[in-house]
Write a structure and sequence with these properties.
This protein is about 70% helix and about 0% strand. It has about 100 residues and is mostly helical.
Length: about 100
């Protein structure tokens, strides 16, 4: 009984190792690398879409909570940062700091 068990355990381990080695060799062929890169780019694109959808959902939730609509945001005056004006316009500075 013991010899039979160890024979089948060794045979199973050998088959498993051969299978894993074959998959590893296939992964490093040009086609295998191309498939892995395609999967990576697809995963990155799906992650970006999920993040964008979550951002839009959270933004809508915040707008509802604050009672701010899109038309109110467009009508609100926009503030410029110091030095961020278009060319030809003077920079916004504090009085007395020349």
């Amino acid at each position: 009984m013991r010899r039979g068990f160890w024979f089948f355990a060794g045979a199973g381990a050998g088959i498993y190792a051969a299978f894993r080695v074959r998959r590893a060799v296939e992964a490093f062929t040009p086609d295998g690398l191309r498939d892995r890169l395609a999967g990576l780019s697809l995963g990155a694109r799906l992650l970006g879409e999920d993040v964008s959808a979550a951002m839009a959902e959270k933004e809508n939730e915040l707008r509802e909570r604050l009672g701010v609509g899109l038309d109110e945001l467009e009508a609100a005056p926009r503030h410029r940062a110091v030095g961020a004006g278009p060319a030809g316009e003077p920079e916004l500075t504090r009085k007395g700091n020349d």
